[in-house]
Amino acid sequence: MALSGIQIYKLLPQTNCKECGFPTCLAFAMKLAAKQVELGACPYVSDASKKQLAESSAPPIRSSPSRLAHRSKSGTKS
Q1: CB distance 11 to 49 below 8 Å
Q2: Exposure pattern of 48-72 as b/e (b: 16+ CB <10 Å)?
Q3: Which of 18, 19, 59, 72 has a Cα-to-Cα distance from 46 of 20 to 30 A?
Q4: CB 8 within 8 A of CB 32
Q5: What is the DSSP letter of 39?
Q6: Which residues touch 45 (CB under 8 Å, ≥6 apart)?
Q7: What is the DSSP letter of 2?
Q8: How many CB atoms lie within 10 A of CB 28?
Q9: How much is the pLDDT for 38?
Q10: Closest CA to 33 of 10, 13, 7, 58
Q11: What gap in Å lies between CA 19 and CA 13, rounded to an integer?
Q12: pTM higher than 0.90 for the full model?
C-alpha cells in the first residue's frame, strides 16, 4: 500500500534544507507521494528510510487466479 505524504514526511530528515528544490520536507513528501519527484532528490534521507519507502512502493504480491480458483473448488490449498 502506498504511503501518504504525511507518512513519507515522517521518514524524511525534516531539515527543510531546500536542496531537493522544494521549500520544505513536507512539500517534497507530498510530491513524492504523488509520484512527481524521485526520492534521490533528497540528499539527506537515511538508508533505513530509503529501504522502508522502497518496500512500501513495491506492488502487492497477489496469488494467481488459477490458484484461487483451485482453492475455492477443492477447499484446500494446492
Answers
A1: yes
A2: ebeeebeeeeeeeeeeeeeeeeeee
A3: 59
A4: yes
A5: G
A6: 11, 12, 13, 39, 53
A7: P
A8: 26
A9: 93
A10: 7
A11: 12
A12: no
CATH fold label, 5-59: 3-methyladenine DNA Glycosylase II; Chain A, domain 3 (1.10.15)
Per-residue model confidence (pLDDT) at position 57: 73
Question: Positive or negative CA dihedral for 64, 54, 49, 3?
Answer: negative
Give DSSP secondary structure letters for 44-65: T--HHHHHHHHHHHSPPP---H
Task: Return the pLDDT at 50.
Answer: 92
Domain ranges within the chain, ordered by starting residue:
5-59
**Which grid coordinates are listed for 50?**
530509503
